[in-house]
Amino acid sequence: MKKQKRLLLLGGLRYLIPVIEAAHKEGYYVITCDYLPNNIAHKFSDEYHNVSIIDKDAVLKLAQELQIDGVMSFAVDPGVVTAAYVQEKMGLPAFGPYESVCILQNKDRFRAFLTEHGFNTPKAKGFSSVEEALNGLEGFEWPLIIKPTDSAGSKGVTKVDNIEQLKKAIEHAFEHSFSNRIIIEEFIEQEGCSSDSDSFSVDGELKFISFSAQRFDVQAANPYTPSAFSWPSTMSKKQEIELTSELQRLLTLLGMKTSIYNVETRVGKNGKPYIMEVSPRGGGNRLSEMLRLSTGIDLIANAVRAAVGDKVIDIEQKPYNGHWAEIILHADKDGYFEKLDIDQEFYNRYVKQVDLWVKKNDKISAFRGANDAIGTLVLRFENESDIDKNIYNQKKWLKIITK
C-alpha cells in the first residue's frame, strides 16, 4: 500500500484553511504547529503540535520525529526561514538554498543584495538600536518608510515626512521586530497602484506571474495596511514585462527552485520599476484564491504538491477572465461588531463571495494591521473604471456597523 505523505504546515491562521483543504484533496496527512493552539486552522488539520515556528531547531526536531515528507509556511512570514532550514537539514523538497531564503526574508539583507546586483532599489539602511537609527540617516531624502526587517502584515510600518515623527516611528518598528532590527529606506512614491500578488516558479523558471493593484484606506488607523486588491494591475504591459525579467533574474541569482511566491512591486514616479519584496510563500489576504477565481490557475494545490515532491501540473500563464477585486473588510474604530451592510443592488450586480469572520457582538479593532481584518468580499466587474469608482467610493455601498 502506498505510504500517505505527511505535510507540516507552520502557523495556524485562517489563510491556511484552503491549503489544508488542498492537501487533503491530494490525499496528504496534514500537521500544523505554532504556539497558539486556538488558531483556527488547527481545527482543520489532522494533527497539531504546540511548537513555536520561529524556533528552527524545535521545529526540526518535531519534523524528524514525525517523519514528514514536506514542510511549508503559507501566508505566515515568520515560518518561511524555519521551513527552509528544515528542508535543508532533512533533505526535503526545497524552495531554494537556505541562505537565499534568508536573504529574501530579511528586508535589510534583501535591499543590500538588490543594490549589489544592480536592481532598482530605494536607498536603505538597517539598524539595531533607536540611537543608531536616529544618528545614521545622513544623506537620506524624505519621506522615509520605517519598518521591522522581519515582520509581515504591515505591522510596525510607518511613513515619516519630517524629523519630529522619526523617533516615535523608529520605536514602533522595534516593538514589532523579532530580531530587534529595523530598516529605514527612502519612500518610493508610486505611479498608479503598487502590486502585491502571487507567482510560481518551476525548477527556477517563472511559469506564472501576476500583478495586482494594491489599494489603501487613507482613513484607516494604519493607512499602510492594504485594504483592497484588484486584477489586472494599473501597470503598463511594458512595465510588467520589465518587472518579470528582473524577477526572473533575481530567482536565478538566488538559485531558487519550485515554489509559490508573494511578490510586491511598484513603478516609481521616476518611471523605474522596483522589486520591493519577494517571499517564497503564498500571500495572505486570499491572493492565491483570487488568482484561482480570475485565471483558473491553482497555485495552492501546486504549492502543496511541490512541498512533498510531487509533480506540479497546469502552471501556465493565463489571462484574467474579467476585472476582479477583493475588499479587506475592516472597522474604522475599536468596538463591537453589529452588522455588515451592503447595498442590495450593488450586491446583486458585483458581489461573488462574502467571507465574514466575526459575528454580532464580537470585539473588533480598528485597522492597524492585517490581523485586524474581519473578512473579505470578492467582486467581479466588467471594466477598470467600475473597479476604481466602486473601491474608492465603497462607503456609499458598504458599511461596517459597530457599537
Strand order of the largest sheet: 11-12-15-19-17
CATH superfamily of the largest domain: ATP-grasp fold, B domain
Give the uncertain stretches in residue-range form. Answer: none
Oligomer: single chain
| Global morphology | globular
Task: Name the descriptors.
27% strand; 4-stranded parallel β-sheet; D-amino Acid Aminotransferase, Chain A, domain 1; Rossmann fold
What does this structure look like?
The protein is α+β, with helices and mostly antiparallel strands. The chain is 29% helix and 27% strand. The chain has twelve helices and 20 strands. The protein has helices spanning 17-25, 56-66, 80-90, 98-105, 107-116, 130-134, 166-175, 237-254, 287-295, 299-307, 344-350, 384-392, and strands at residues 6-10, 29-34, 47-50, 70-72, 124-127, 144-148, 158-160, 182-186, 195-202, 205-208, 213-216, 226-231, 259-267, 273-279, 323-329, 335-342, 351-356, 363-364, 375-381, 398-402. Helix 2 packs across helix 3 (80-90) and helix 3 runs antiparallel to helix 4. The model has no long low-confidence stretch (mean pLDDT 95).
Please specify the SSE layout and strand pairing.
Elements: E1 6-10, H1 17-25, E2 29-34, E3 47-50, H2 56-66, E4 70-72, H3 80-90, H4 98-105, H5 107-116, E5 124-127, H6 130-134, E6 144-148, E7 158-160, H7 166-175, E8 182-186, E9 195-202, E10 205-208, E11 213-216, E12 226-231, H8 237-254, E13 259-267, E14 273-279, H9 287-295, H10 299-307, E15 323-329, E16 335-342, H11 344-350, E17 351-356, E18 363-364, E19 375-381, H12 384-392, E20 398-402
Parallel strand pairs: 1-2, 1-4, 2-3
Antiparallel strand pairs: 5-8, 6-7, 6-8, 9-10, 9-13, 11-12, 12-15, 13-14, 15-19, 16-18, 16-20, 17-19
Helix pairs in contact: 1-10, 2-3, 3-4, 4-5
